[in-house]
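Before relying on records like the one below, remember that each one covers exactly one chain. Contacts with other chains, cofactors or solvent are not represented anywhere in the record.
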Amino acid sequence: MNSEVLVLYSRKGCCLCQTLEKKLSKICLENLNPSIALSIVDIDSKKVSLDIQMKYTNDVPVIVLDSTKLSKKIELPRVSPRLNEDMLLSWIQKNLNILYKTA
């Protein structure tokens, strides 16, 4: 099991969320360095804390890296909806490189 998890805060009925969800589901996050797993979380779910709901409710889709190696959760920059799957994978790797170099 991966200690690093890419969390996508999403919402039903949000076209940007659905598009990003589809793209993230199609790419192989296990090939990234470090390898990461994907978790898709409905921001409106009762399982989501009120703090998280209040923080992200107007901003979905939001991508957060939940990192055991870095011992923190890091919100990634807003991703362009124009990125295809290959470009999205490269964008994620670029962000991981920045985060893990500064650690």
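Strands lie at 4-10, 37-42, 62-67, 72-75.
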